[in-house]
Structure formats: structure tokens, C-alpha cells
From TrEMBL:
Designated name of the protein: Aryl-alcohol dehydrogenase-like predicted oxidoreductase
Pfam families: Aldo_ket_red
Highest rank taxon of the organism: Bacteria
Stretches assigned to the NADP-dependent oxidoreductase domain: 15-312
Length: 327
């Protein structure tokens, strides 16, 4: 495992880390013993950073992380997120009283005294423009409840706006072979400002594993069923904003990348790791086997300049126009 510095903070985190949405809920049936085994497998392989949120299983993923990291609080870094347990359009959700309550509830579930990274969870642009929430986070940081803070964003515009705040230390963005737009302006600007990049939805909700077909049926409690067209939240969070059927067609055009890299998923993760501005990539998981499969990306060859150019052309000519939702 290699470790990368999170922006200009003192945190050095595993370049391949994990997100815990799937073990909390909204990805079909969960299995707590298997989830704990998977977390242990990740840590045994050098993973020292996990991303979670208060709404993942109504706090369940935080509780699982508390069990898995007991006694390792100083060496395993946890990032959580807030605001989506409330009305994300209302300023009241971002008030000092509300944010403190969200933070303290997360700390209680995680059984920790301080969060390493606390992120606003995909707030509307208007909230970021109003900006008072950043002072609230400054105050929590001064009190020692959070070590650093950042923002999980849906669009490049939101990310660029966040970079105007000198205390934002990390941006979490949707970034994968189907969502390359952040490379154009956001990533260079973040690097200039010393802000870390956390790449989420790296496998496009599983499309980039290559394991799905048109006949595949997702469980009713899986967001890949109930949010296919953005019915519950931003459509970009599900299949990177692509229609499922179109995504399957595009995957066929990418199968060549697995030739030297074992699997499509390990190749897709390797491509993200090859982007120097990315601090860490956070695929999801439900089993220890999935953790091990994702870790394979660390050992496969990097992409050549020619391959990178080919993949950029693929995005601009075949993918970009089919992405739905603001990004």
C-alpha cells in the first residue's frame, strides 16, 4: 500500500481506501459479520482511511466502523458527512446547533472524540454560496471535534466555489472513466490550492466491473433500482448519470483496458490512481472478496500516455453527451 498526503494537511492516507455506503444500506441486503470481516481485510492490507456518512443505514455504517476500528483510533482515519439527514435546502440544517448535533451523533456512533475529516454531504450550490456553514465548521475545528473539513460535491462549479475557502482541505467528487470532467479545471485548481481529492463512485455503481447485463435485476432497496433516473437524489450518484443500458454498451468499448490488468474493475481503479491530483479512491464493498478484488488495482500496470489519450477521446466522443444531471 502507498500513502498520499491529503492536500496540505498532515494526514497521509492509503491511496486506495473504501467507502461504506453499501454496508450501511441502499445497496440491497447487508450482512454485518461479513461487513466487519471485509473491514478487517482492508485494514490488514494497509487501508487506513474509510469514508462514511450519518445517513448510511441511518448511522449503521458508522457503528460498524466503531466496532472494526476499536483500539485503532489513532491509526485508522475516518471521514464522515452531514446535512442529508435534514432538509438540505434549509439554512437551519447548517446552523451551529444542527451541525453540532450531527457531529456529536456521528462521534457517539463512531465512539470517537474527534473526526479526522468532516464533510458537507452534497449541499445545494446556494448553501455553499451563502457560506455561513464554513464558520460553523471552523468553530467545531477550534473545539477539537473535527481535525479537518471538506465538501462532497456534485458539480465542478460547486467544487471550484469551495476552493475559494482556504480552510476546505478536501473535495470528494464523482470521478471515473465515465466522469472525466473534473480533470479539466477542478483538479488542477485543487492541486494549486493544496486541496486533496477523494474520488467516489469510481466503478460507476458497478458498471465498470463488467458483471452486469441487460437482464440483471437489482433489489428494490438498492439505489440502482430506485434512483436510476434520479428519483431520490442526484442521478450522477447512480451509474455516474448514465442510463443503465447505455452504460452497458459503453463498457463493451472499454474491455480492452483489462488486457494487461487482470479485470475491468482493477483497470478502472488503476486509471484513477494514475491521476496525480487524486489523493485516494474509495470504492464500495459488501464482502471481503470484493475488498480483495479492489485491492488488485494496486498491483496492475499504470496506463501509458497513449492509452490515457485514447481514454480521454473515448470520454469526449462517446460518453460526455450521455451524462444526465448537472456535473
Amino acid at each position: 500500500m502507498k500513502y498520499r498526503q491529503l492536500g496540505n494537511t498532515e494526514l497521509k492516507i492509503s491511496e486506495l481506501s473504501f467507502g461504506t455506503w453499501a454496508i450501511g444500506g441502499s445497496w440491497g441486503q447487508t450482512d454485518d459479520p461479513e461487513s466487519l470481516k471485509a473491514l478487517e481485510t482492508a485494514m490488514d492490507n494497509g487501508v487506513n482511511f474509510f469514508d462514511t456518512a450519518d445517513v448510511y443505514g441511518d448511522g449503521h455504517s458508522e457503528e460498524l466502523l466503531a466496532k472494526a476500528t476499536k483500539g485503532k483510533e489513532d491509526s485508522i482515519h475516518i471521514a464522515s458527512k452531514f446535512c442529508r439527514a435534514g432538509d438540505i435546502e434549509s439554512l437551519d440544517t447548517y446552523s451551529a446547533q444542527s451541525v453540532r448535533e450531527y457531529c456529536e451523533n456521528s462521534l457517539r456512533r463512531l465512539k470517537r472524540e474527534r473526526l479526522d475529516l468532516y464533510q458537507i454531504h452534497c449541499p445545494p450550490l446556494e448553501i455553499l454560496q451563502e457560506g455561513s456553514v464554513f464558520q460553523v465548521l471552523d468553530d467545531l475545528q477550534a473545539e477539537g471535534k473535527i481535525r479537518h473539513y471538506g465538501v462532497s460535491v456534485e458539480t465542478v462549479e460547486e467544487g471550484l466555489l469551495c476552493l475559494d475557502n482556504p480552510n476546505v482541505k478536501a473535495l470528494q467528487v464523482i470521478f471515473n472513466l465515465f466522469r472525466q470532467k473534473p480533470l479539466e479545471t477542478l483538479f488542477p485548481k485543487a492541486a494549486e490550492k493544496g486541496v486533496g481529492i477523494i474520488a467516489r463512485v469510481p466503478l460507476a455503481s458497478g458498471l465498470l466491473t463488467g458483471k452486469f447485463s441487460n437482464e440483471y435485476t437489482f433489489a428494490s432497496d438498492d439505489h440502482r433500482h430506485f434512483n436510476r433516473d434520479g428519483e431520490s437524489f442526484n442521478v450522477g450518484e447512480t451509474f455516474a448519470g448514465l442510463k443503465f443500458e447505455k452504460g452497458l454498451d459503453l463498457v463493451q468499448q472499454l474491455l480492452w483496458i483489462r488486457k494487461e490488468r487482470k479485470t475491468l474493475s482493477s483497470a478502472a481503479l488503476r486509471w484513477i490512481l494514475d491521476q496525480e491530483e487524486v489523493t485516494t479512491v474509495i470504492p464500495g464493498f459488501k464482502t471481503a472478496a470484493q475488498v480483495q478484488a479492489n485491492l488488485e488495482a494496486l498491483d496492475v500496470p499504470s496506463f501509458t500516455d497513449e492509452e490515457l489519450e485514447k481514454l480521454h477521446t473515448f470520454y469526449t466522443s462517446e460518453v460526455h453527451e450521455h451524462i444526465r444531471g448537472a456535473y
